Model the fold of this input.
Amino acid sequence: MKLFDVYPLYDVTPVSAKGIVVTDDKGQEYMDFYGGHAVISIGHSHPHYVKRLKDQLDKIGFYSNAVQNPLQEELATKLGELSQCGDYNLFLCNSGAEANENALKLASFQTGKSRVIAFKNSFHGRTSAAVATTDNEKINAPINKQQKVTFLPFNDSDAFEKEIKKGDVCAVILEAIQGVGGLDEPSTEFYRNIAKQCKEHNVILIADEVQSGFGRSGKFFAFQHHDIQPDIITIAKGMGNGFPVGGVLIHEDIEASYGLLGTTFGGNHLACAASLAVLEVMEKEHLMANAHHLGEYFKQKAKEIPQVKRTKGKGLMLGLEFDFEVAELRKKLIYGQHLFTGGAKDKYILRILPALNITKAEMDLFFDKLKVALS
Done:
């Protein structure tokens, strides 16, 4: 049997990692400024994270949601405190796509309606409803297109109000900072109007914080830069620092019932231990503040690069926009400078998603490598 060939792979085989350094099978070290799609939030092999998982595995690694698991309650409490979202309830799952799938399903249950408003260049996952709300024809199969989804541009309030007033919309789903799409953001005025219109028209507002959450934007959630309150928040990626885990934060106004949602692996003991370790490190090392300060430092350093047209994003969820497609630059960075970076749907954007505990010296080294690659 062979692998189903769906990934265009770089010729690099990582075998170990520490902090932001990844080492391959030939002993070559790489600086990781991509974190495996924004997953590595507290650095590779953080000592507290490793110990938390090892200690948990010595006790119990998994049992299903048919029994009590106090770690889930501990995680919900800690997450509520650190995110300042204590008036939400937590449903645990395994990934961002699954989180968005459950959020959309819950919105339809709650409102009795079926149409969704999403936004141009969005990415919400590859499962049925999640991919239907993703603006990418290449991964949207005919079976997914049976879903009722309307895609709108950011910051067009007239178009948005026209659609939501039709009365059949169950949910609006959006990223406060688009990841795959290329780091575009709604304006605060537009986001606040969305929240207002959703309340007026009995529509569930879903904040997709799968990539932008867990401190990456400099606040715990990126929507908090706009001072609004979604009905549902979806999380994953940096939540587990590499361990598969996701979640749906559901405002307490939305009632639960037995059998409404379910999962076999979601919220297992190891997943909870990984997520708790991430929150504990974030709190102890003040990583949200570090993400904010280093993000501002990055933007200042980027001004020294003549080829950079502008810097997009917030905190350590960043994009460098060039006036040329960046695919070849990424190859130069990985093979010549041994530096991992990311791309986006916008081919002119170099996506930067390092661990939140990155240092100023490591960021300076990033720019040294970038300058050499550009020369």
User: Anything to note?
Assistant: The mean pLDDT is 97. The CA atoms of residues 30 and 81 lie 35 Å apart. The longest strand covers residues 308-314.
